[in-house]
Write a sequence for this structure.
């Protein structure tokens, strides 16, 4: 099935910089991120990714195996929704990506504790399944899990959604730290203030023609 969700998108994302995707609902912002992460398979075009060894790979043509390998350490994606096993503790949810990459279990849990502290997740919640958490608490667990591997390219879809102002400031500070450490970030924001504070480059998307025609009808 082909869905006309984004077209004629042309952008670059660089290390040490954050590129913000902005635009109205239906412009295809989330589709662009999912196309890069290959949750969606683009029907045309190229998505070129430079690997750590300087090899350039087209993510549109990459095999499923290549994408799984890139997702382990090179490309991270934090969505607006937390998906995890229902009875798994928050600390194990966060440590999961490191353990999947072969890290020692205890070291992974130590790293998880550090990032949970940085995002102000109360310690009494660490051993509780996130299914019982509030929306803002779930989002912090989601962020912690997505950020713990420190990927070379980080995709963020509304990273501060559901967060209170205090926690939003913590997340902003951490995103700045990640950017300064050399990570390339492509992020979707709806709030102009966040774009102003975090973005080095801004790409504005408009709805594809098919969507515009549907709206006019």
């Amino acid at each position: 099935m082909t869905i006309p969700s984004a077209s004629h998108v042309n952008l670059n994302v660089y290390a040490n910089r954050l590129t913000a995707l902005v635009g109205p609902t239906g412009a295809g912002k989330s589709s662009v991120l999912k196309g890069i992460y290959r949750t969606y398979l683009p029907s045309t075009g190229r998505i070129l990714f430079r690997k750590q060894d300087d090899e350039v790979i087209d993510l549109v043509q990459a095999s499923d195996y290549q994408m799984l390998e890139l997702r382990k350490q090179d490309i991270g994606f934090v969505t607006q929704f937390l998906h995890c096993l229902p009875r798994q503790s928050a600390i194990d949810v966060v440590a999961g990506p490191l353990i999947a990459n072969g890290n020692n279990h205890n070291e992974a849990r130590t790293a998880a504790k550090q990032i949970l502290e940085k995002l102000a997740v109360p310690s009494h919640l660490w051993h509780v399944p996130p299914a019982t958490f509030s929306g803002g608490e779930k989002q912090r667990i989601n962020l912690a899990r997505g950020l713990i591997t420190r990927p070379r390219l980080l995709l963020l879809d509304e990273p501060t959604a559901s967060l209170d102002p205090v926690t939003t400031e913590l997340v902003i500070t951490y995103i700045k730290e990640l950017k300064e450490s050399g990570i390339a970030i492509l992020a979707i924001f709806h709030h102009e203030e966040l774009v102003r504070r975090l973005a080095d480059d801004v790409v504005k998307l408009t709805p594809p023609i098919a969507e515009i025609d549907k709206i006019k009808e």
